[in-house]
């Protein structure tokens, strides 16, 4: 063992106490949660409005969900400064696209563009989890979810942010019917076919529950609903069918208006 | 709230009672040699408070610029007017603040000069805030932050309403009817919110505080900050921005009560 | 135009045998075609006025100004090529701003005029450039009091009590001389007040304007004085209006006398 009787020189020369390095940390976590669910002919994209840092609430109303065009809505979550600036860039790219091609960018193209933009900053990432929802060119409701560096996929639903771990299992159970058995003789469950009223209830329940158990979620809820062209909006506009406390407004067409309609549903959440 | 200037090595001066001139600036382990970027704040200002009232908005900050724990400059102003209807309240590094003042003053002077020839409207509080946000985010993205937290208060002449918003070294932005930076976010913000909501309600749709009420809340909050924030001083100013323009008060002091201290063990003359 | 065809007028970097720079002289011609610009130094401030000729009835009222601000306290009225004037104003603003940056104090009218003139002069030295087709009046109030300068295309500049450039400057100058002489004789060396000078400048511009030959014009006036907060600003609408009316009345009177 003579070989190991003394530690190697390089090891002994290592300083025992390293000088503390004060390096600027360009990121922060601003909490909150977002969620999107695709239906057959609609898509729902939601987020709470609290913005926080540590135990402090910075504001009770900050936007996390953004209407991009008449068929796409983007939700961002993570580092708020990156979020707002990323959305700003996405909107600018969409405007350039419209100038060049005289039509709004399709949903799947926006999704691919977002991947490129996120990966473009692979080595200094936007610290943001994105969920894109809207109507696909074939008229179906769609949800795309992204990680901060651009990995993405189309899904039937996705929750993200501070309360992802609370929301996603609930969605897996209610949207993907995980751990559920159809009654004997009844039809097989197929994800992505729930009616809008059911989806809205799931979204509201997700957020009220997350508000109860997660300190970073609360204050207000904004739910964007994008509908396929020609679809009746009666299920949303009839107040009697809507849960109490929900307020609906239709957002006018941003572009030429090809028939898709976007609605904004608001609800307050607990502020404690 | 702001980080203490870093000791040259951690075993020296554990209590951070004074900052060291020989701080580690831009030292990196790169083979390319030192990089002149990331800084740390040296001379700093502490909390800034902001509060909307029925006829405008008020911003308060004390007159101290600290060098670590040394109360270095005790008569500096941290409220800076920009044009007729905008005012900045600045916390954080005071040299960055001075640089910011110089740049913005030059910009506004140029805007003023150009206005004579092409009679375009002057920069609104919102315009100045957007510019600051873009500047702060761009600098943090270059890993060379402007080491401040800023409250922008103003009067929007077009909408005829007050403006109050926050931006900091990370490019984080938000707006709320009451705002506070640093220690103020912990100690004063709850007082401000309580006073604001007592009249306006939690949705802010009731009557707002009057000018006298708002000033009283700020006076109380500044007193609390002086009692509990070791980097504060009992000398502060309040700026009021209304449709009539910006006015900055003379420096004033809170009435403080220290009698209780005599009975505290370890505070007064007792030795045992 | 004896210079034409001699070849000495092709480059600004070539003197003629008798020591002239023809390109610089041609630049003066560009100035003479422009509407008159007047500067008047008063005891309590400075007034700038221009006769802005309207080449089209479609132009928006009050637009396309020929007087620019260089700093809070300094204005520049130029006669000549409009685009050159805009470029020079921009350069002037940069100089004024850089002076503030370096010395943390507002630039004096004298120093700013000196820097602008140095810039103009450089355009008389190289074959690759043309001189500015501009005569510019720089006026302002600084810590040394009200000051007025005029810079010519050659880069030369002089300080004035009163100055006029552009079309009809000769007539304007004789009128200005009358005012200045009257002040000298009556021992009010400082001259008129800015309030009084507004009417005088308006009167002279209306007098110089030739209704038969010239196109329509708009009167453009700025001042720097205590009333404007020692800032370079437009002369208030009501003062301008009344000055214009008095000027028109004075013209009528003059015609009746003839």
TrEMBL record, chain A:
Listed Gene3D superfamilies: Glutamine Phosphoribosylpyrophosphate, subunit 1, domain 1
Keyword Cytoplasm recorded: yes
InterPro entries given in the database record: Ntn_hydrolases_N, Proteasome_bsu_CS, Proteasome_sua/b, Proteasome_suB-type
Top-level taxon: Eukaryota
One Pfam entry name: Proteasome
Main location: cytoplasm
CDD domains linked: proteasome_beta_type_1
Start and end residues of each stretch annotated as Disordered: 1-20
Protein's cellular compartments: Cytoplasm; Nucleus
Keyword Cytoplasm: yes
Compositionally biased intervals (Polar residues): 7-16
UniProt keyword terms in alphabetical order: Cytoplasm, Nucleus, Proteasome
Family affiliation: Belongs to the peptidase T1B family.
Function summary: Component of the proteasome, a multicatalytic proteinase complex which is characterized by its ability to cleave peptides with Arg, Phe, Tyr, Leu, and Glu adjacent to the leaving group at neutral or slightly basic pH. The proteasome has an ATP-dependent proteolytic activity.
Subunit-structure text: The 26S proteasome consists of a 20S proteasome core and two 19S regulatory subunits. The 20S proteasome core is composed of 28 subunits that are arranged in four stacked rings, resulting in a barrel-shaped structure. The two end rings are each formed by seven alpha subunits, and the two central rings are each formed by seven beta subunits. The catalytic chamber with the active sites is on the inside of the barrel.
Record protein name field: Proteasome subunit beta
Organism encoding this protein: Kwoniella shivajii
Lineage of the organism: Eukaryota, Fungi, Dikarya, Basidiomycota, Agaricomycotina
TrEMBL record, chain B:
Protein name: Proteasome subunit beta
InterPro entries linked to this entry: Ntn_hydrolases_N (IPR029055), Proteasome_beta4 (IPR016295), Proteasome_bsu_CS (IPR016050), Proteasome_sua/b (IPR001353), Proteasome_suB-type (IPR023333)
SUPFAM superfamilies according to UniProt: N-terminal nucleophile aminohydrolases (Ntn hydrolases)
Protein family (similarity comment): Belongs to the peptidase T1B family.
Keywords of this entry: Cytoplasm, Nucleus, Proteasome
Intracellular or extracellular location(s): Cytoplasm; Nucleus
Function: Non-catalytic component of the proteasome.
Biased composition (Polar residues): 7-30
Keyword Nucleus found: yes
UniProtKB/TrEMBL annotation, chain C:
Keywords: Cytoplasm, Nucleus, Proteasome
Compartments reported by the entry: Cytoplasm; Nucleus
Entry annotated with the keyword NADP: no
Top-level taxon of the source organism: Eukaryota
Domain Proteasome alpha-type subunits: 8-30
UniProt xrefs under PROSITE patterns: PROTEASOME_ALPHA_1 (PS00388), PROTEASOME_ALPHA_2 (PS51475)
InterPro entries cross-referenced by the UniProt entry: Ntn_hydrolases_N (IPR029055), Proteasome_alpha (IPR050115), Proteasome_alpha-type (IPR023332), Proteasome_asu_N (IPR000426), Proteasome_sua/b (IPR001353)
Family per similarity comment: Belongs to the peptidase T1A family.
Classification via PANTHER family: PROTEASOME SUBUNIT ALPHA/BETA
Subunit: The 26S proteasome consists of a 20S proteasome core and two 19S regulatory subunits.
Name assigned to this protein: Proteasome subunit alpha type
The organism of origin for this protein: Kwoniella shivajii
């Amino acid at each position: 063992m003579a070989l190991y009787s003394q530690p190697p020189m390089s090891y002994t020369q290592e300083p025992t106490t390293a000088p503390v390095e004060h390096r600027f940390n360009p990121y922060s976590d601003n909490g909150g949660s977002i969620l999107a669910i695709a239906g057959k002919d609609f898509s729902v994209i939601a987020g709470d409005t609290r913005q926080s840092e540590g135990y402090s609430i910075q504001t009770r109303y900050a936007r996390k969900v953004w209407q991009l065009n008449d068929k796409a809505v983007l939700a961002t979550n993570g580092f708020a400064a990156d979020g707002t600036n990323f959305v700003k860039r996405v909107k600018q790219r969409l405007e350039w696209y419209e100038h060049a091609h005289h039509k709004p960018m399709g949903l799947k193209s926006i999704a691919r563009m977002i991947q490129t933009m996120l990966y473009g900053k692979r080595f200094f990432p936007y610290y943001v989890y994105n969920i894109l929802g809207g109507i696909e060119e074939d008229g179906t409701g769609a949800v795309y979810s992204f990680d901060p560096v651009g990995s993405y996929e189309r899904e039937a639903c996705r929750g993200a942010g501070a309360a992802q771990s609370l929301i996603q299992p609930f969605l897996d159970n209610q949207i993907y019917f995980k751990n559920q058995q159809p009654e004997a003789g009844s039809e097989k469950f197929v994800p992505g076919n729930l009616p809008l009223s059911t989806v809205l209830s799931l979204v509201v329940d997700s957020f009220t529950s997350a508000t109860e158990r997660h300190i970073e979620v609360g204050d207000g809820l904004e739910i964007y609903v994008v509908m396929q062209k020609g679809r009746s909006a009666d299920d949303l506009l009839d107040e009697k069918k809507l849960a109490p406390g929900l307020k609906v407004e239709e957002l006018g067409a941003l572009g030429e208006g090809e028939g898709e309609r976007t609605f904004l549903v608001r609800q307050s959440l607990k502020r404690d | 709230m702001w980080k203490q200037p870093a000791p040259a090595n951690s075993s020296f001066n554990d209590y951070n009672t004074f900052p060291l001139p020989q701080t580690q600036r831009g030292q990196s382990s790169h083979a390319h040699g030192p990089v002149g970027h990331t800084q740390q704040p040296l001379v700093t200002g502490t909390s800034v408070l902001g509060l909307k009232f029925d006829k405008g908005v008020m911003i308060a900050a004390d007159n101290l610029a600290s060098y670590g724990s040394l109360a270095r400059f005790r008569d500096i102003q941290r409220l800076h007017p920009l044009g007729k209807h905008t005012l900045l309240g600045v916390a954080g590094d005071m040299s960055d603040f001075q640089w910011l003042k110089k740049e913005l003053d030059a910009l506004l002077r140029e805007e003023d000069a150009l206005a004579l020839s092409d009679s375009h409207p002057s920069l609104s509080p919102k315009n100045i805030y957007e510019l600051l946000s873009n500047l702060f985010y761009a600098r943090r993205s270059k890993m060379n932050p402007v080491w401040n937290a800023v409250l922008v208060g103003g009067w929007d002449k077009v909408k005829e309403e007050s403006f109050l918003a926050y931006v900091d070294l990370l490019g984080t932005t938000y707006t709320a009817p009451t705002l506070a930076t640093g220690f103020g976010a912990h100690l004063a913000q709850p007082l401000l919110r309580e006073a604001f909501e007592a009249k306006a309600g939690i949705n802010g749709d009731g009557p707002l505080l009057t000018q006298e009420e708002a000033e009283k809340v700020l006076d109380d909050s500044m007193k609390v900050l002086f009692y509990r924030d070791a980097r504060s001083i009992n000398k502060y100013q309040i700026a009021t921005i209304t449709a009539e323009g910006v006015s900055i008060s003379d420096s004033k002091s809170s009435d403080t009560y220290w009698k209780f201290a005599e009975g505290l063990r370890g505070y007064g003359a007792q030795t045992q | 135009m004896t210079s034409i065809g001699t070849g000495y007028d092709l480059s600004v970097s070539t003197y003629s045998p008798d020591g002239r720079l023809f390109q610089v002289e041609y630049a003066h011609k560009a100035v003479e075609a422009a509407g008159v610009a007047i500067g008047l130094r008063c005891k309590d401030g400075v007034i700038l006025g221009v006769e802005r000729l309207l080449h089209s009835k479609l132009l928006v009222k009050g637009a396309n100004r020929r007087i620019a601000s260089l700093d809070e306290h300094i204005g520049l009225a130029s006669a000549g090529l409009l685009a050159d004037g805009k470029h020079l104003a921009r350069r002037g603003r940069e100089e004024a701003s850089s002076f503030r940056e370096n010395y943390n104090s507002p630039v004096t009218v004298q120093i700013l005029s000196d820097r602008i003139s140095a810039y103009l002069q450089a355009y008389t030295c190289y074959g690759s450039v043309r001189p500015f087709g501009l005569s510019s009046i720089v006026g302002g109030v600084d810590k040394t009091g009200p000051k007025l300068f005029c810079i010519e295309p050659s880069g030369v500049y002089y300080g004035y009590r009163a100055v006029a450039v552009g079309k009809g400057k000769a007539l304007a100058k004789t009128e200005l001389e009358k005012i200045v002489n009257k002040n000298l004789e009556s021992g009010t060396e400082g001259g008129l007040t800015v309030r009084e000078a507004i009417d005088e400048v308006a009167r002279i511009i209306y007098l110089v304007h030739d209704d038969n030959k010239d196109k329509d014009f708009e009167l453009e006036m700025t001042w720097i004085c205590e009333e404007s907060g020692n800032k370079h600003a437009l002369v208030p609408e009501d003062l301008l209006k009344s000055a214009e009316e008095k000027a028109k009345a004075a013209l009528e009177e003059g015609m009746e006398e003839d």
